[in-house]
Amino acid sequence: MTLKKRAGLILRLANGETVAAAARSERVSRSHVYKLLADPQAQRDMLAIRARYQRLTVGKMVRGSVKAVDKLVALLGAESEHVQLSAARYILTLTPEWIATADHEIRLTDLEAAQARRDAQNGHH
After folding, report:
1. What is the pTM of this model?
2. C-alpha angle with apex 4: 50 to 36, nearest 5 degrees?
3. With b meaning 16 or more CB within 10 Å and e meaning fewer, what string describes 29-66?
4. What residue spans define the domains of the chain?
5. pLDDT in tens, the chain (125 residues)
């Protein structure tokens, strides 16, 4: 199998195509695709692609969340008291969870940094 076909299969499989569809698209047998799926390096490559997609998705979600919060805050000044109350309730419902999540992220980052320093001091990489 050529490197181009291998790369194409890995990308297609990482994107969720079925074995049959990926094999058809790259004009290889399904047995070639199953062999590729059993290859540890191909598995790592697919995981790396999926991880990249996940990072991109999370970035978009964060940007969208900022816009959503801006919209909710703006709705606090709406003419309708019903709209104002709905926005206020939603903000008050989600704020504790957002704060806890941010706090956990900061604490985890601090713990990882402390562990990395300890590892460096002990000669681990």
Report:
1. 0.57
2. 60
3. eeebbeebeeeeebeebbeeeeeeeeeeeeeeeeeeee
4. 3-41
5. 799 999 999 999 999 999 999 999 999 999 999 999 999 999 999 999 999 999 999 899 889 988 999 999 999 999 999 999 999 999 999 888 888 888 899 999 999 999 999 999 988 76
* Beta-strand runs (E) in the chain: none
The token pair at 12 is: 């297609």
Q: Which structure tokens are listed for 116?
A: 């990395």
Residue 16 φ/ψ region, left for φ over 0, alpha for ψ in the -120 to 50 degree band, beta for the rest: left
Place of tokens 């499989």: 13
Packing angle, helices 3-14 and 19-26, rounded to 10 = 150
